[in-house]
């Protein structure tokens, strides 16, 4: 057994949970220090990662449900489904239970659709895990709604401490735009054009997780306003907007330029790393085989990480053969969440 | 840069390959290996090689069968090992027994199986290294067929006796029955200082 990878599993869990707390706190979840990053948070991708990793922090999990009770209208469920169809995420059955809870007593169909979309686990499973990875048994009366979805947990007691998001924070730009324009493709189009000099509709569709036809048609409509501009490059139309004027309008004039990160592939990669590190079999392997496993894992997730446009470069593993790759892997993954 | 296979990393590569097969819970694999890696493993020659030549595969009842094609799960595992250790991508290959004219397909020397030396790696990988006499057979054939100095040097290092060379030459002539090949073989045997063997065949 190689102790370093086992130790790192605990460190990675702490890093991931800190990262989730930071991002959710920026959105208004009651809790820890909020993010002071220039990245714009993607609430749908964040929710998907939380459905897996958040199970290791029941307090975070319940604070997010608390936040969703108040701010769930800001979540774009259609986009959430599109992300789920495009990227690998393991938390869909947990998401279904959350959607079931949010659908309770509301007339809005969006959560209802999501609530029926996933297959619950074959046998009832504990929803939460302790720090050491042991399932936490339901204490007290099990929460009936979660039980219906195959998840055992104690009673849900929401504190109601979640706050409204702060519209002037860069991280919340997508929520600000949704509050302004409604929950639709126009928000992601404007967001994308605020963070890129110009873009082709297919590029926006791919990175914002919409159908190209929807983006294309909406951009044509928006360009009639004279606010969204279009220029032809070879045979393609590229759209753009006057970023400074938009930033003034949105009260972001004094801030540094917001950064676009395509979070879904990055979060999917972080989740895959998490799931692999969480496999106890990995920790019983000889260090040479462990290195081989994590090298294979990183070869698989590298394209997702690169697609995200996140500015953290991974080391070329071919320069670190055999067991010598283990510390490189650990440093690379830490770098992703630093 | 790709790493060569030597005594130290041959064992490492095969241990890792076995580990990967265990992780994948693949079916057991028994490979019969010839060439440079078998020379290294059997301590018959100290040199490096870039690949491991699989001449045959063996089933659970120790019967040989063609290694063409090698199973996909084995190649997938070998590809990862190549990446892990910086080996040549096709380091594990069936080159000697590929196609109709391959060594296995054309027929292996008599008593071949009895001279194999088995080494087990984990529960799913067994490597059967070919014996010294079979190396002499294959190296003589390859040296005459490919006129390659490496095979000739390997052959010399094995210090074959006249009887061993004659057996090897007669076997090689069953693989290439042409008069031209026989002439090359005779020339080679003479070069090795075995004119009597050259005359006998």
List the helices and strands and how they pair.
The complex is a heterodimer of chains A (338) and B (201).
Chain A: H1 3-27, H2 43-53, H3 58-71, H4 77-86, H5 92-103, H6 109-115, E1 125-126, H7 144-148, E2 151-152, H8 173-181, H9 185-195, H10 201-208, H11 212-223, E3 228-233, E4 236-241, H12 243-249, H13 263-277, H14 280-283, H15 287-308, H16 325-337
Parallel strand pairs in A: 1-2
Antiparallel strand pairs in A: 3-4
Chain B: H1 7-23, E1 29-34, H2 35-41, E2 52-58, E3 64-65, H3 72-85, E4 92-93, H4 103-106, E5 117-121, E6 125-129, H5 132-146, H6 149-157, H7 162-175, H8 179-191, H9 195-200
Parallel strand pairs in B: 1-6, 2-4
Antiparallel strand pairs in B: 1-2, 2-3, 5-6
Helix pairs in contact in B: 1-3, 5-6, 5-7, 5-8
Please describe what this structure looks like.
The complex is a heterodimer of chains A (338) and B (201). By secondary structure, chain A is mostly helical. Chain A is built from 16 helices and 4 strands. Chain B has 201 residues and is an alpha/beta fold. The A-B interface holds A 285-286, 288-289, 291-293, 295-296, 299, 317-318, 321-322, 325 and B 3, 12, 15-16, 19-20, 23, 80-81, 83-86.
Summed up, what is this model?
Chain A has helices at 3-27, 43-53, 58-71, 77-86, 92-103, 109-115, 144-148, 173-181, 185-195, 201-208, 212-223, 243-249, 263-277, 280-283, 287-308, 325-337; strands at 125-126, 151-152, 228-233, 236-241. Chain A has 338 residues and is mainly alpha-helical. Chain B is of the alpha/beta class and 201 residues long.
């Amino acid at each position: 057994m190689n102790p370093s990878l086992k130790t790192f599993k605990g460190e990675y869990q702490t890093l991931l949970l800190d990262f989730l707390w930071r991002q959710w706190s920026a959105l208004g979840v009651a809790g820890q220090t909020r993010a002071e990053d220039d990245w714009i948070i993607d609430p749908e991708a964040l929710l998907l990662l939380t459905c897996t990793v958040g199970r290791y922090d029941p307090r975070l999990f319940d604070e997010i449900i608390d936040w969703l009770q108040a701010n769930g209208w800001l979540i774009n469920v259609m986009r959430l489904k599109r992300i789920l169809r495009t990227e690998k995420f393991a938390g869909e059955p947990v998401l279904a239970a959350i959607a079931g809870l949010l659908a309770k007593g509301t007339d809005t169909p969006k959560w209802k659709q999501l609530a029926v979309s996933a297959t619950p686990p074959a046998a009832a499973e504990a929803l939460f895990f302790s720090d050491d990875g042991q399932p936490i048994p339901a204490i007290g009366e099990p929460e009936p709604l979660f039980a219906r979805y195959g998840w055992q947990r104690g009673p849900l007691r929401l504190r109601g401490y979640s706050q409204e998001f702060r519209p002037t924070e860069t991280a919340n730009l997508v929520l600000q735009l949704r509050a302004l324009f409604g929950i639709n493709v126009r928000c992601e189009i404007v967001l994308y054009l605020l963070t890129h000099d110009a873009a082709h509709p297919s590029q926006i569709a791919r990175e914002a997780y919409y159908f190209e036809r929807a983006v294309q048609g909406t951009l044509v409509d928006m360009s009639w306003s004279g606010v969204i501009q279009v220029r032809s490059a070879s045979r393609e139309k590229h759209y753009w907007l006057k970023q400074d004027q938009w930033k003034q309008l949105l009260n972001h004039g004094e801030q540094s330029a917001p950064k676009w990160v395509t979070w879904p592939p990055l979060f999917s990669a972080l989740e895959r790393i998490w799931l692999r590190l969480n496999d106890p079999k990995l920790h019983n392997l000889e260090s040479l085989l462990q290195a081989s496993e994590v090298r294979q894992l990183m070869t698989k997730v590298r394209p997702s990480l690169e697609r995200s446009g996140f500015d953290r470069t991974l080391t070329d593993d071919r320069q670190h053969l055999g067991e010598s790759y283990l510390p490189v892997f650990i440093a690379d993954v830490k770098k992703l969440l630093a | 840069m790709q790493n060569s296979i030597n005594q130290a990393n041959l064992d490492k590569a095969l241990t890792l390959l076995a580990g990967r097969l265990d992780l994948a819970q693949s079916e057991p694999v028994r490979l019969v290996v010839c060439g440079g890696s078998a020379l290294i493993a059997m301590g018959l020659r100290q040199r490096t090689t870039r690949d491991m030549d699989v001449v045959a595969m063996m089933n659970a009842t120790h019967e040989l069968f063609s290694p063409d094609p090698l199973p996909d799960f084995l190649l997938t595992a070998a590809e990862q090992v190549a990446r892990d250790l910086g080996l040549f991508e096709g380091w594990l290959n069936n080159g000697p027994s590929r196609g109709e004219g391959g060594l296995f397909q054309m027929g292996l020397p008599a008593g071949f199986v009895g001279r194999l030396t088995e080494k087990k790696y984990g529960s799913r990988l067994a490597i059967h290294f070919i014996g010294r006499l079979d190396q002499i057979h294959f190296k003589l054939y390859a040296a005459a067929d490919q006129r390659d100095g490496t095979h000739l040097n390997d052959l010399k290092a094995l210090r074959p006796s006249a009887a061993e060379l004659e057996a090897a030459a007669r076997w090689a002539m069953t693989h290439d029955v042409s008069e031209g090949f026989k002439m090359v073989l005779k020339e080679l045997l003479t070069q090795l200082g075995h004119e009597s063997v050259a005359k006998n065949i």
